[in-house]
Write a structure and sequence with these properties.
Elements lengths: L3 E14 L2 E14 L3 E5 L6 H8 L7 E6 L2 E2 L5 H11 E4 L11 H11 L4 H14 L15 H13 L5 E5 L7 H16 L3 E6 L2 H4 L4 E6 L2 E4 L5
Parallel strand pairs: 3-8, 3-9, 6-7, 7-8
Antiparallel strand pairs: 1-2, 1-4, 4-5, 9-10
Helix pairs in contact: 3-4, 3-5, 4-5, 5-6
The structure holds adenosine-5'-diphosphate and magnesium ion (MG).
Length: 229
């Protein structure tokens, strides 16, 4: 049986605005195995980013249970949450979020600095990871000297360099043209073949088709599509 790395049971999230409850996530069950490439597909306002924040331990649910790599997330304090986030999750965002004054290599080294890795090993691991995403010639370039697709590759290398359990991407092709977006999907395929578990959030059905499992979210309700549809 496949190793389960993430399990959500009955996860709900409510916001209270002007005394009124708005339920943004409704009783969500989700389980992800090692080696999965999953897409969560839904229109704007359906709750995708809210769910991503839950998966990434950036926010806590109003109700339900969440287990990530055998740890019950709701039992963790702030410090433990930061630790599990750094260890288990590699984040990729629509707008890349690179630091503009740093070279590609230094951007990728950043999470290793936080993890207390020494300079020599940092440099080696960042260089290796940038090669894996196809940027061997661009290590010393700064973000504004790179195309959008290349910047997203740097962001993916930064997310991967700490060897997280899950690569968690929120609209990773949202700021890219279609062709460049598909090249980023080829990179996701490659990383998934190499064993990386991927969860990708998107509003784009064509992009979602790259995944091996597709979940739809609508009005805070999550359902998985049957395989082969
Ligand atoms: N901090 C918040 N406070 C109140 N409502 C929020 C908050 N964050 C998100 N929402 C609401 O939750 C719903 C889902 O938002 P979101 O998860 O960002 O959707 P998506 O990423 O699919 O566009 C929206 O109706 C949004 O207005
Ligand atoms: Mg969103």
């Amino acid at each position: 049986m496949a190793e389960q790395i993430l399990k959500m049971t009955g996860i709900s999230k409510s916001y209270f605005l002007g005394g009124e409850e708005q339920m943004v996530l409704k009783n969500i069950d989700l389980s992800i195995n090692k080696g999965d490439f999953a897409a969560i597909l839904g229109p704007s306002g359906s709750g995708k980013s809210t769910l991503m924040n839950m998966i990434g331990c950036l926010d806590t649910p109003t109700e339900g249970e969440y287990t990530l790599s055998q740890q019950k997330v709701q039992e963790l304090d702030e410090k433990e949450l930061a630790a599990i986030r750094n260890k288990e999750i590699g984040f990729v965002f629509q707008q890349f979020h690179l630091l503009p004054r740093l070279s590609a290599r230094h951007n990728v080294e950043l999470p290793l600095i936080y993890a207390g890795v020494r300079e020599k090993e940092r440099e080696q691991r960042a260089t290796e990871m940038l090669s894996r995403v196809g940027l061997e010639g661009k290590m010393e370039h700064r973000p504004n000297q790179l195309s959008g697709g290349q910047q997203q590759r740097v962001a993916i290398a930064r997310a991967m360099v700490t060897e997280p359990t899950i690569l968690l991407a929120d609209e990773p092709t949202g700021a890219l043209d279609q062709k460049t977006g598909q090249q980023i999907m080829e990179l996701f395929h490659q990383l998934n073949r190499e064993g990386k578990s991927i969860i990708m959030i998107t509003h784009d059905a064509e992009i979602a088709k790259n995944a091996k499992r597709i979940f739809r979210i609508l009005d805070g309700l999550l359902t998985e599509e049957e395989a082969g549809c």
